């Protein structure tokens, strides 16, 4: 038996602008071989896909997996604390995490992502407590391989001491040399720039307010030398702090350093001015929009219509569980669209179409990560996809517009199947070959070590 033939799909959403009805989809190896009517199995396993909508696998462009171990805690409720009070409570918890905690929290987040249709995930791992060692990202690659997720590791770091204006306790600090050396090690060990790559590394200093300028300068030099991508937090309330320190707001500061361009994407950007959005678009820099922290953090709703109008490249991210208590990128598509509708009357530009929000989570995310082999369903593309069986009461009256379904209606349950690189990683409520109850038990045991 070789490959899979999805027979009789009710719809294949090749991309949000292209919906194919009543077709088959053939997967051979890691790639899609063909999409059309009456395809022959060619020795492939036949999957009855009647009633199924097939979508491109979702691409998560910003997360903090380790924060999965601090979610749903009343004592860390944003709504009851100031930001400084919250940071003073949560960073000591972060600094107690062990190497095993980082592994199991990553496994937890990636399992939830896969259940909800995510096939490629970028994680911004910026927490490196000294006692936990330098193998944290290595363990994340191990977790990704176990789940079967395509993983882009953002090797983050913080170098500026709290005594000089950062929010980072000394236990989580690294020197610039330490940070750059480990980025180089990870790139040499794991980064694969080839087609259908399952492992890539992104140089990702945490954020300008928590790092020395030299950290960003050296990050640019390393990334350009190694031909890898760059990422950081930008425009989430720090712009005036950067102006006070460096005489300019964050976008200008980073462009002066060279931390901008088609190989660079920023997280958040909700505080950028219209001129800064134009400037960011002109440089080719992309934005990972994280809609769900708006609910908990209370920050303003990011002006996605303006970003889209200026041609800024947009992807979607879950963000970490400190400001979003789930790892469900599918839910973020619905949240992103609904939040923009909520404030539509205050915007200069119209809300993008519902299908555009699916595009941000698929083709948009792929573009942010520099991938041309994922993000849509077509022959030759990676077989990254998920399936929703619409023969349920939940979908009565919705099936006429598959491209808008996720943004407008929302999906309230796990997928019926998630496939990554031609491998089924989630189907029929199970991770094939894995014991979910055992994984959950081991993760809870690791979590208990930081609460002891």
Automatic annotation (TrEMBL):
<dbReference type="InterPro" id="IPR011059">
    <property type="entry name" value="Metal-dep_hydrolase_composite"/>
</dbReference>
<protein>
    <submittedName>
        <fullName>Amidohydrolase</fullName>
    </submittedName>
</protein>
<dbReference type="InterPro" id="IPR032466">
    <property type="entry name" value="Metal_Hydrolase"/>
</dbReference>
<dbReference type="Pfam" id="PF01979">
    <property type="entry name" value="Amidohydro_1"/>
</dbReference>
<keyword id="KW-0378">Hydrolase</keyword>
<dbReference type="GO" id="GO:0016810">
    <property type="term" value="F:hydrolase activity, acting on carbon-nitrogen (but not peptide) bonds"/>
</dbReference>
<feature type="domain" description="Amidohydrolase-related">
    <location>
        <begin position="53"/>
        <end position="425"/>
    </location>
</feature>
<dbReference type="InterPro" id="IPR050287">
    <property type="entry name" value="MTA/SAH_deaminase"/>
</dbReference>
<comment type="similarity">
    <text>Belongs to the metallo-dependent hydrolases superfamily. ATZ/TRZ family.</text>
</comment>
<dbReference type="InterPro" id="IPR006680">
    <property type="entry name" value="Amidohydro-rel"/>
</dbReference>
